[in-house]
Each structure stands twice: as C-alpha cells, then as structure tokens.
Amino acid sequence: MLNQVLAQEVLNMALSTGGDFAEIFVEDRRDNALILQDNRLETINSGRIHGAGIRVYVGLNAVYTYTNDTDREGLLKCAKQAASAVRAQRDGIVQAKSLTVLPVNDVHPYRMLPSQAEASKKADILRAANAAARKVSDEISQVTCSYKDSEQDVLICNSDGLYVTDRRVYTRLGCQVVASSGMENQSAFEGPGALMGYELFLDKVDPAVYGEKAARTAVTMLHAPQCPSGVMPVAIDNGFGGVIFHEACGHSLEATSVAFGMSEFSGKLGQQIASPIVTAIDDGTIPNQWGSENVDDEGTPTTKLVLIENGVLKNYMIDRLNGKRMGMAPTGSARRQSYAFAPTSRMRNTYIAAGTDSNEEIISSMGDGLYAAKMGGGSVNPATGEFNFAVQEGYLIKDGKIATPVRGASLIGKGADVLMKIDRVGRDMRMAQGMCGSLSGSVPTNVGEPMIRVSAMTVGGRA
Fold first, then answer.
1. Is 203 helix (H, G, I), strand (E, B) or coil?
2. How many CA atoms lie within 13 A of 25 on its CB side?
3. Are the C-beta atoms of 448 and 352 separated by less than 8 Å?
4. Helix, strand, coil proportions of the chain in percent (round to 5)?
C-alpha cells in the first residue's frame, strides 16, 4: 500500500515544522450491500474507500489531515498541510526513526472472502430471512433485510519506527420487522455479524432463524399491554442487554472523556465503583468477534482489558494521545470509522463476565418486577452517567414468574448507581453485534452480558 521509503519521506515532511510525533493511516476498503424490502431486492451497492490520514502531535495537541490521493505527491501535500499548522519552538527538527515491520499474529482467520461469493447467493440469504419472518403472522406488515460485507486493508506507520499492516473482513445480516394491527405498529431487529468471511452463513448463521426471531418479537409486542411505571427490580437478559453497560458505563471509561475529567469515573482507579459480583471486560482479541482486531487503528496490538474486577475499577480504555494527557500507556483501544477520522479511544467487545447464578434463580427470587428480554436504543451523558434506554422486548414478573409481555418500557438511571445495585449475575454470557458512534465515527462493537438483576431501577411506562 505504501512502501517504507515513501512512508519515511512523508513522516519527515509532517515533522518538518517542529512536530514531535507523526503518524500515517492508509486504508483500502471494498464494501458490498444488498437490501430486500417488500419482497423485492431493492438495492445492490458496491463501493470502495481509499485514502490516507496524517496526524502530527505537538505536545498534547494534534493536527489531522486526510486525502484520497495516495501517490507520492498527494501524500507529501497532505503531510505538508498538517505540518503547516504546527509551529513548535524547539532546537532542531525531529526525524522519523527507521521503519521496522511489526509482524502481526492474525487470530481472525477467514476461509472465503465475501467478494468471492456470488451476489445471487447473498440475495438468497435475504430471501430466506424475509420468508421466515413473513411466515410468523399475517400481521407482519414490513420486512427489511440487509446484507453487508467489508474487506478492509490498513497500514499504520509512525515516526517512532512502526510499520504494520492488517486485513479486516466483516460480514453481517440485518432483519428489521414491523408488525401492524392497522392502528398500531411494533418493530424488532436482529443483526448477527462477525469478523469473518462468507463462511459466517455457511457455518454459523441461519438467516431464517433470525428473521423468525425478529418477527415473533414484533408480534408479541404488538399485542402486549402498556408497561406500568415505577421503581422495581429489573432482570436484564444476555446479548443485547449488554447495551446498558456499553452506553451507561462503557463510554464513561473511555479516555476520550476520562482524560478531560468529563467522566463520572475520572480519577477513580482502584476504587469500588460496582457491586463486588461485577467484573467487566473490554476484549479486542476474541477470535472472529465483531468488535475484534489484530491491531488497533494506531497500530497497537489489541488487548484483553479488565475494566472492573470484583467491583473495583482497574483500567480505562486509552488511545495514544489521551494516554499522553493521562500519563498512561495505550491499551490497543484506538479506533476510527475510516481514514477521514482521527482515532480515539473506543470500545471493542465489551461485556460483563459470567457469574454464578442461574437465570431461573434470578427470575424466581425477584418477586414482582420487569424482565427486559431485549434492549433497544437510548441516550447517555458520559459526564454524569445518566441514561434512558428503551426496552424492545419486556415482560412483567409476578411472584417470581414471567407473567405477561409489556411494551413501551424504558429504563432510566445513572451508570454508577446501576453498577452498585447489580445483585445477581448469571452464568450464560452472550454477545450481540452493533455499531457504535462517537468522535471517530461509527465502528463495529459487541455488547454482552449474562442475565443480570438490578435490585431497583426506575422503569418508565404509560400504564
């Protein structure tokens, strides 16, 4: 993508006005997408993203420029633009160190590149999901199925002598289903994906299963009464339930907010911030998981990072620049949507580790409360941890038994409070796939947890 001689020249140009560190990120990505709606294949798109971003540090400040012209003249022009914004007072100009190739241990193998699969086969995946969803009920009014794949090659090199390449292959199915009574609509979504090739649909994902699952959720919620509001115990199921930790707590543990004191958890390393039964992990090394990588977007090898251990805050997720601000080493957590974004600290596969309780014990010991079988979207303020999340699929619990489905439920609270009120953690940890947006764009992330119980939460509802 960019040979070492030219990379060295570009880095030196970026440092030519007094910067103390320079970095190049080169990306070449091929994307494919198919969308089936109203029983018809509506969209077949293919695209290519190619370009480079150049970043220069001066102390704790950074300048970022990018270009899609990656020949010698284009890269030098881009580096010169970055350098022109730097006016450092120093004796002499820093020169980039000789670049050394960093070998990468690829733990995310693929058998078949998605580009090697025929478009007709990909369309058959969508048709299978669509047919299974519509078969569930005559009340299914709309089904939108999407197939997406991506083959991304990256090169990262910097003035410290790093030169590393990585290939990332993503494949995903999406099923959005709407059930309608003629007066009201309810929707549900399933979206399995992985950091692997087309073999995802040959070995692991049956599209009909996910189409049917989304449809059953939508129909169930269509006929459910409105959820009552109040403070009550809440059991949050595995998989998508992990979005609570991701949004309400995970973002507050990213250096993006911690480094500036804009997180409720700033300055709390070594302190008890959660119930002693809670251990939370952000792991970019899990083979073929949706949020994994071999190296992050600064070229740092990814890590398994224990964020919270037995309730005690152990680590933050740290990128290089914010690590300088904090006086801490990067953790392989720097990510970006594309070369058009400067990287910053982001989550990867973030989950609450398995505990010792069975799901049956968690439900039977609740008395009356709410079972959030699947979470939807929401919002959070990382500075305060205050959040509000919709429950996509919920059920009331009466006398320790799952009684009736309810719709319109939302969970309201503060991340730090919820962490301390988790009093049961199940044994079966599962993950679910999503896209997370932040300062460096939208990136693939996994959320996960076993079933957990929060002793008391504010539940919003209309009943």
1. helix
2. 25
3. yes
4. 20, 40, 35
19's tokens: 């910067």
Please report which confidence band the pLDDT of residue 462 belongs to, taking 50, 70 and 90 as the band edges.
confident
The model carries a pTM of: 0.95
User: Please, is 180 exposed, middle or buried when counting C-beta atoms within 10 Å of its C-beta (0-12, 13-18, 19+)?
Assistant: middle
What does the alpha-carbon distance between residue 355 and residue 19 come to, in Å, rounded to a whole number?
48
| pLDDT above 70 (res 139) | yes
Q: Which of 332, 226, 343 minimizes the C-alpha distance to 286?
A: 332
Q: Do β-strands 162-180 and 100-101 pair in parallel, antiparallel, or remain unpaired?
A: parallel
**Average pLDDT score over residue span 185-213:** 97
Distance, CA of 425 to CA of 448 (rounded, Å): 12
- The residues facing 54 across adjacent strands are 24, 65
Torsion angles phi and psi, residue 131, rounded to 5: -65, -40
Answer for the pair 108, 196: CB distance below 8 angstroms, yes or no: yes
Residue 24 confidence (pLDDT): 98
Q: What is the pLDDT at residue 240?
A: 80
Distance CA 372, CA 255 (A): 30
Q: Contact, 334 vs 298, CB < 8 A?
A: yes
Residue 110 DSSP SS3:
coil
Q: Yes or no: say if 283 and 348 are a contact pair by the CB < 8 Å rule.
A: yes
Contacts of 183 (CB under 8 A, 6+ apart): none
DSSP 74-108: HHHHHHHHHHHT-----SS---PPPPEEPP-----
Amino acid at 442: S
Structure tokens that stand for 117 in this block = 């699969």
Percent of the chain residues past pLDDT 70, beyond the cut: 99
Averaged pLDDT, 30-57: 96
